[in-house]
Amino acid sequence: MLKEFKCYETVELEVMTNTVAEMQDILDKLDNNEIPSANYPLESLIMFCTSLVNGQRNDMEHFKKGSWSVAPDESMPSDARVEFVFFPTYIAIAILSKFMQLFPEEASSIATYRSAISMGLLFSTHRRLSGHGYDAVEGMVQAVTILDKGDVPKLLSDDRELSYEMFVLLRSIKSDLDKNITEGMCTAGWGDADFTNKYQQVSEMLDVLTSKGEVFLEDIAEIISARGGRVTPSNDQNKEYLVVKMMDLRKSNIVQQPNSKLYFSDYDYNRSKLKAGDIVISRLCNSTTLIPEIALIPEDYDCQNSWVASGRMFIIRLKQDVKLESPIVLLWTLIQIIKEELRIEVAQRRLPLLKRAQLGACTINIPAIEKQLKIMSVQEEINAINNDISLLQEQVTLLPNKIEGIFLE
To answer: What is the pLDDT of residue 395?
Structure first.
């Protein structure tokens, strides 16, 4: 059996294929409790896992860091990338995951063990676990099966911070498969092969990610990354629109009429244009509180005005089939989450950016209908108070002119 992870500086198809097969053999035996054994003791397994951590390919020019590619660092066709870069990475992650859950003390003694798994999981999301060409779906089935052998879904269910990106991706795959099964849309690949049974098997492998009955923001809302506008048009096709910026989110939890204008292409406008009831949340944390800014686009907003979100922010848009009476309820819930969960530690003296996957994986506890109605009622009272304050401010502004008029009489 393989004693250490190997990669190659030249293309050697047979040797690289054998190495991947030997890695798979270790995973299979680990999954079947056949190792550690007399022929492959725990010390050998520790040495192999250490070689995986130390041998992670973090300095390749043609691929992002985090893989366990067995191939040389050069361009290669898509099918070769799947076979010699991504699949050995899935296997390595599965081995490290299984080992960490079976032998936590031994795993914790290996430097950067947890970091290696996190980087490998992030790298693995870059293809969304899909295979090559007509084998895209079959490749996804094989990838999830490999990860399941290493109990990766269970690991992420217990510790989603290990990789928000993979956590959300696996939940998304399960959601898509369940929908396809329900709608009878289970054919894929060359010749429209029937994947019904495989879809059901993969969905069951991922049940652990949803078995706690939690609802995540990704489940009930679209999360759209806003595009940045331009001060001057880049071409004649760009048009000027009113924009909601970070400073507009700081003024109030209900966005008021914005004053700034920027130019957008049709694509960027269609992606970032706002609708009544949208929630806008900044990706960049407030420098004082280290939590994101958040605000609601008022439900009486006329979309003909064409407000556009601009800059480092997300647009949160409720899906149609959720049990929320109003976006105001989601705004209230997200504000609680921001206060309790999304406070982010500053690293390297720079403010970190909120990640889409991290936001999508936030747990949403949908309030009972009575509480939702109370939240909406309180918000209406707040809106009425804000309107009274605005009127008072206008009157205060006009007061000097009135006083001057009295003296001139």
So the answer is: 79
